[in-house]
Records
---
Amino acid sequence: MDKLEKYREYVQQFLIKHGSYKLSYGDVQVEQIFDTVRDHYQIVHVGWENKHRVYGCSMHIDIINEKIWIQWNGTEINIAEELVSMGVPKQDIVIGFHSPYKRQFTDFAVS
């Protein structure tokens, strides 16, 4: 399996694991969205809590130039560390929600 296919598999496994938990409130669905052609992956919450609409992306991961970009993490889960534990080298993970300036001070890729 080549690097890109392996990373697609890791990202999907990760999101399936964390997207399988049902929220304890409201009538809210947790959707796992996989665009394997353009390499965009998300977990989105959609539904209602009482009379209030619930909609939002809790995780967004892209694969760009054979690196995994964590574009958004609205959870307490350390996505980067879980990907490292799956076998992804730190130099192939970009914390995209950090500014390019700040990325240089992490153990992960700048871009």
---
Amino acid sequence: MEIKRKILIDNAVLKKKFYCDIEKCKGACCTLEGTLGAPIKDEEIEIIEGILGELSNDIPKRSMEEILRRGFWERSGTNKYINTVGGNECVFVYIEEGLAKCVFQKAHKEGRINFKKPVSCELYPIRITRSGNKEILKYDYLSECNSALARGEKEDTTIIEFVKEAVVREFGEEIYKKIVVGN
């Protein structure tokens, strides 16, 4: 049985220019003060549980203490999120040369794990909300990403183009093409 996905897309996702500029924002999306961590799916929780041991040497001590105390994810309502340290940085963040970086990306790049990172992280600045049988792709504006907006203009790259790999990972190549062509 084929289940068709109904996807609604915020016009900003299709039109607004965006290209991450981590040198300027310092990885702010991974260290936001007073917020829940990134949304996480059940299948990602299972994957992370299986690779946590491989990541243990990459995870900062205070984050590992938080993971051991509270786990690496939390529930808020019906949704699940990656835990944070002190309501700020993701428990899977490490700081290198003043930049917030991801232990998943580091281990993936080094070939130690096959998991790149939670798809919600890779999709950022898009957030997916679900309403009934609809999935809504919305642009999540952060003032910390103003440099990404400026760089997006310079690179002439829209949000949907910037996160293409993540959209394909989440929805498939065919849906990505429909989103872009339908634009």
---
Amino acid sequence: MADRIRQYMAYIDNLLESEEDDIDWEEEMKKHLVQTAFFAHERFIHLIVTVTFAILAFMVFLYTFSNFTVPLLLLFLMIMVLMIPYIRHYFLLENSVQDMYEQYDKMLAKAGITAFVRQGKYKR
């Protein structure tokens, strides 16, 4: 997933830097919103997984603290080792989706759309 996000964002960055006049920005914005929604959904799922693991780690920590055994300590350490990649991946997703919002704003500017009106219509 991380490679897919990076490749897609690089594609959009290249599109934004392009000097071509024949780019249909409104079509590209529609595609971009779909991709942003996919990545935002993935971000939400990873948030749920990360919070679940954090709660599990906290519960195991409390139980280990009150009933110390080596297997419980090993379980806690394994959960903490798993938390590191979950948190890292979640932050990649979070930051990427935020960057995609900025890319969308730049696409709006390229399309000549200056403001977003509350009724859902574009103002040129």
